[in-house]
Specification:
Layout (H helix, E strand, L loop, with lengths): L5 E7 L2 H17 L3 E6 L1 H11 L6 E5 H4 L5 H11 L6 E5 L8 H17 L5 E8 L4 H9 L3 E4 L2 E4 L6 H7 L11 E4 L6 H14 L4 H21 L5 E7 L2 E8 L22 H9 L2 E7 L2 E9 L2
Parallel strand pairs: 1-5, 1-6, 2-3, 2-4, 4-5
Antiparallel strand pairs: 6-7, 8-9, 9-10, 10-12, 11-12
Helix pairs in contact: 1-2, 5-7, 8-9, 9-10
GO molecular function, one term: protein serine/threonine kinase activity
Keywords: Kinase, Serine/threonine-protein kinase, Transferase
Protein name: Sensor histidine kinase
C-alpha cells in the first residue's frame, strides 16, 4: 500500500449528485478495507447515510460544527482518526458550512486547504472535499487551485488548475498594516506581558466578548508574545483594532528567523517543540495570520465580535 495521500475535490449541484459521488467514494473505500471518516454538515451526512444504507454503520461521522470549531481543529480530527489505525488507509470526506465565516476565516480556510497537500503528503489518506456549485466564486476557486485531483462520475482525473501549495501559502502570508487609529501596546520587556494581558482582557470584556472567549484570546496572545520575546527582536508591539466583524490582536516584533509557512499548522509532539504556540493559538481563536516583511514578524489573532 502506498503511503502517499490524495487530495481531491468534487463539485455537486444537487443532493442526488452529492450522494452518488461522495457515497461512491466511501463505498469504494469500504470495499478496499479502508477506514472511513466524514466531517460534514448534518444535511450532508443524512444523504450519505441514506445512500450507504447498512454500510453507513462502518463510517465515522463528525458534525462540521465540531470538526471545524475552529477550522484548524479539522486537522486534529483527521490526525487522531488516522493514528487510531496507522497501518490502514483512511478515506475522508471534509466539508463545512461557510455561511457565517468572515473574510479572515475564509482566507484561513484557503490556507488550510493548501497546507493539506504538504502536511499529509506522506500519510495513507484519501481526502475528498465536496464543493456546492452554488458557492461564491472565491470559494470555488479554492476547489480548483488547492486539489491535485478532481472527482467526477466515479473517477478521478488530474486537476490542471492545481497550484503549487508552497507558493500559495507564501502569497497568503502577506503582512497587513495595522490601520490608523489602532491601540498599540509596547511589550518589549518580559515585565510588560502582564500589563498587556490585563489591557487585552479589559478591552475584550468592554466589547462584549464572553469571559471564556476573552480567556482564550489572552492565552493565545500570551503564547504569541512569548515567541516574539524569545525568538524575535525588539520592539514587541501589540496592535488592537476591528476588521470585517473581527477583533484583531496583532503582534509585531522587529524580526527574527524566516517564518515557516507551515509553523503551527499541526500539533507538535511535545509542548516545548517549535510551533506549539502557534498551533495552540489556532485552536483558540477564529483565524491566525502569520507573515514577515522588512518591518518585522507579524501574527494576527482574529476573534469574532459579538
Amino acid at each position: 500500500m502506498s503511503p502517499s495521500a490524495t487530495h481531491t475535490s468534487m463539485f455537486y449541484g444537487t443532493d442526488r449528485d452529492y450522494a452518488a459521488e461522495a457515497g461512491g467514494f466511501l463505498r469504494d473505500g469500504l470495499e478496499r478495507g479502508h477506514r472511513t471518516l466524514v466531517m460534514a454538515p448534518p444535511s450532508r451526512t443524512e444523504l450519505l447515510r441514506s445512500e450507504l444504507g447498512n454500510d453507513a454503520d462502518e463510517v465515522t461521522f463528525v458534525d462540521d460544527s465540531i470538526a471545524y470549531a475552529p477550522q484548524w481543529n479539522a486537522y486534529r480530527v483527521l490526525l487522531d482518526f488516522a493514528a487510531a489505525a496507522p497501518d490502514v488507509r483512511s478515506c475522508v470526506i471534509a466539508e463545512q458550512r461557510f455561511g457565517r465565516r468572515t473574510p479572515a476565516e475564509l482566507v484561513d480556510y484557503r490556507r488550510l486547504e493548501s497546507a493539506i497537500n504538504l502536511v499529509f503528503a506522506e500519510h495513507p489518506v484519501d481526502l475528498l472535499c465536496p464543493y456546492d456549485t452554488a458557492l461564491p466564486s472565491d470559494l470555488l476557486d479554492i476547489a480548483v487551485h488547492s486539489h491535485g485531483g478532481m472527482r467526477r462520475g466515479g473517477s478521478v482525473a488530474a486537476n490542471p488548475g492545481f497550484q503549487d501549495p508552497l507558493a500559495m501559502l507564501t502569497d497568503l502570508s502577506a503582512v497587513a498594516v495595522p490601520p490608523v487609529g489602532s491601540t498599540t501596546l509596547d511589550c518589549t520587556q518580559h515585565s510588560d506581558v502582564a500589563l498587556v494581558r490585563r489591557s487585552v482582557r479589559a478591552r475584550g470584556a468592554e466589547i462584549g466578548l464572553d469571559a471564556d472567549v476573552v480567556a482564550d484570546v489572552v492565552l493565545a496572545l500570551t503564547e504569541v508574545l512569548t515567541n516574539a520575546l524569545l525568538h524575535g527582536s525588539p520592539p514587541a508591539l501589540v496592535h488592537l483594532y476591528d476588521e470585517d466583524g473581527m477583533w484583531v490582536c496583532h503582534v509585531q516584533d522587529g524580526g527574527g528567523p524566516p517564518v515557516d509557512v507551515l509553523s503551527g499548522v499541526v500539533p507538535p509532539a511535545q509542548p516545548a517543540d517549535h510551533g506549539y504556540g502557534l498551533w495552540l493559538a489556532r485552536q483558540l481563536v477564529s483565524a491566525v495570520d502569520v507573515g514577515s516583511n522588512p518591518t518585522g514578524t507579524h501574527v494576527r489573532l482574529h476573534t469574532r465580535r459579538p
